[in-house]
Structures are given as structure tokens and as C-alpha cells.
Amino acid sequence: MIKVENMTKQFNSLKAVDDVSLEIKKGEIVCLIGPSGSGKSTVLRCIHGLEKPEKGAVYLNDQLLDPKEEHYRELRNKMGFVFQHFNLFPNMTVLENLTLAPIQVMKKSKEEAKEIACQYLKRVGLLDKKDEYPNKLSGGQKQRVAIARSLCMNPEIMLFDEPTSALDPEMVIEVLEVMQELAKEGMTMVVVTHEMGFARTVADRVIFLEDGKIIEENSSKAFFSQPKTERAQDFLNKVM
Ligand code: ADP
Ligand code: MG
């Protein structure tokens, strides 16, 4: 579903992403893990078009993601992105957060957008919060709203950048459970995370990055039981 070819992204002289190639198949759950500053977010942001790599190409269903192409926006809308800090619109209610893009971008009627939004709010257990403003919600609730908002755009793939890192520990579970449900339903997912339990039990595959490079790529099972590289082993010793 996603193909990244020889992607390089520099910030001044720093190669944040250094010649990364990877593929994500339909229905796969892939976790990007690695130390802080290893380039995980930048890889994800380049896939979504939030950053522009100097080199390389990203394909979605064999179609090149190129801002100069006419179908670029349409392609991009097939990817949902969930941020560490939720990025909800503070001046809008939960329901307005969810219906904005479907109405403006997908040209849905208000009624249809509301109906879909309520469906997804119900799925993340927050239908009763539809008329609240984000500042009235806990971190875990905000992130579940952010996930529901992405789902309203009917994405083919969901990209998560440390969705639980900004949350108090007791709220991590409720977000991971929503993600696990999505995974079960067959959603294709790429997840940057430090939640090794999630990576081990939910991911099909793990990609381990360091210094902007892919150091190791393996099935989740193999990665956690017998990492191939010393660097991955060192990392796992530190975080587990
Ligand atoms: P990770 O998500 O693995 O912690 P990042 O992708 O955020 O790593 O960052 C990779 C490297 O690129 C880091 O050294 C970081 O400081 C740098 N970097 C990321 N974004 C920017 C930016 N917008 N401007 C300058 N440097 C950046
Ligand atoms: Mg990051």
C-alpha cells in the first residue's frame, strides 16, 4: 500500500532521514521504533507530506505522491495522521472537529457528516462528549477524538506519531485499546511508539531506526525474541 524509495530528509547539515526504503502492505501493522532523534517522526511526516524530502519517492497504491500532480490531495486524504499532541481545533466542539474536513474537503452534507462523526465517536466511547470543547476533555479522551476525526475521512491507512507519549500513564491503555480494535478490523497502520508491549503484541512487523537509517527490520516476534543487531539489542535492553 505504501512504498518509500530511498528517502533522504536533511535539516541543514543533519540527515534526519538517510536513504530509507520501506514497504507497508495492506492490512499490516508496522511499528517504527528507535531512540529519540533517530528520524521516526520525520519518516512518518515525509510519508504524509508534512515534510518534503530532498530525495526519494513515496507511493500510495503504486501512485506517486507528488504535490505537483492533480490527484495529490485526493491521495493524501487516504492517509490519516494522529499526532502526539492531538492537534484538535480548540475553538470547535468535538463534533465540529469531526465534521469540518468531511464537509469542507469531502463535500459531505452536514447531516451525513454528523451521522458519520457520531458513529465514530460511539466507537471510541465518546458520543456523550460530542458537544464539549477539547479543553474539557482528558488527554486520553482528546486522543480518542483525534483518532475518530481521522477515521471520519475514511482513510485507507493510519499513521500514528507517538499517540500515547503525551498522556498520563492511566490514559495510555484507553488509547491503545482503540488502536488495537482498529488493527483487529484490518486497518493498515504505521505506528511510531515507545510502547513496546503494543509493538510486541499488536504489530506484525517492526522497523528499527537509528541516525536516520533502518538498522533492522523484522517480524515483531523475531525482533523481540532475537534481534539481529547489537544496536537493537542495546535499545531493547534499555527500554524493556
Ligand atoms: P524521532 O521522531 O525519532 O525522535 P525526529 O524525526 O523527530 O526523530 O528527528 C530526527 C532528527 O531531525 C533529530 O536530530 C531532530 O532534532 C531533527 N529535526 C527534526 N525535525 C526538525 C526540524 N523541523 N528542524 C530541524 N531539525 C529537525
Ligand atoms: Mg518523534
Automatic annotation (TrEMBL):
Molecular function in Gene Ontology: ABC-type amino acid transporter activity; ATP binding; ATP hydrolysis activity
Domain ABC transporter: 2-236
Pfam families named in the record: ABC_tran
Family of this protein: Belongs to the ABC transporter superfamily.
PROSITE patterns in the cross-refs: ABC_TRANSPORTER_1, ABC_TRANSPORTER_2
The entry's keywords: ATP-binding, Nucleotide-binding, Transport
Species name: Coprobacillus cateniformis
SMART domains for the chain: AAA
Protein name stated in the entry: ABC transporter domain-containing protein
